[in-house]
Amino acid sequence: MIVFDIETGSRPETEIAQLCPQFEAPANYKDAAKIAAYIEEKRMEWFGRAALSAVTGQVLAIGYMVGDNFDHFASGDEAEDIAAFWDLITEHGAITSMVVGFNCLSFDVPFLVRRSWKLEVPIPPTLFRGRWISESFVDLMDIWKCGNRDQSISLGDLGKFLGAGDKTGTGKDFARLLETDRAAALAYLENDVRLTARCARFLGVL
C-alpha cells in the first residue's frame, strides 16, 4: 500500500503566455485606467491558477509513504520524477499496490497522466479500466463523500475533524518555497502525505 501526494507549480510565464485568454472589461467600464486594471487583475488570477492545470502547470514533487517510511521524487526533471512514480506502483507495467491519495482521482492522477502524455512518459497499461481510472487508486475524498458528490472537504479540515492533524501551509506557496527553502518545502510535502495516511487509518482504508 502506497500513500502519495503531488505538488505542482506553474510553467514559466514565457511558455504559457500564449495560452492566456484575451480578457475584456465589462461594458459599463468607461475609464481607461479602470479597464486596464480589471484586465490585469484577470490576467494575474489566470496565471495564479496555472499550477492547477496540466496544460499550464508542471509536477514539482511527488511524495509517498510505503509503510511508515516517507520518500519523494523531486529531482527537477519532471519526466524523470513521473516515470519513477509509475515504476514505484507497478511491476512489469501492472499496478501491484493499493495507491491512496486525497482528491487524487480528480486531481493528482489526471494531472500525472496528462503530463505523462505531454512529456512522452509511458503510463502503466493497467492504469485505466475502460474509461475509468483503475480501482487500485483509493481516493479519501470519495470515501468522505459517502456517495454524495456535493459533500467535499479539504485535507486540513478532514484532518482536524478526525483528530488526525492539520496541514502546515498551502500548496500555492510550494513552488516559491521549493526555490527558497527546499527543506521546508519537502517538510510540507511530508506532512501532507503523513496526514493523508493518518486520515486513511481513521476512514478504515489502512
Round the Cα radius of gyration to an integer and report it.
Answer: 19 Å
Mean pLDDT: 94
Gross morphology: globular
How widely separated are the two ends?
8 Å
Number of helices: 8
Written as H for each helix and E for each strand, in order along the chain, the element string is: EHHEEHEEEHEEEHHHH
Number of strands: 9
CATH uppermost class: Alpha Beta
Q: Look at the structure and name the CATH superfamily.
A: Ribonuclease H-like superfamily/Ribonuclease H
In this structure, how is the largest beta sheet organized?
5 strands, mixed
- CATH topology name, in short, is Nucleotidyltransferase, domain 5
Which architecture per CATH?
A: 2-Layer Sandwich
Classify the secondary structure makeup into a structural class.
alpha/beta
The unreliable regions are none
Q: How much β-strand is present in the residues?
A: 15-25%
What count of domains describes the coordinates?
1
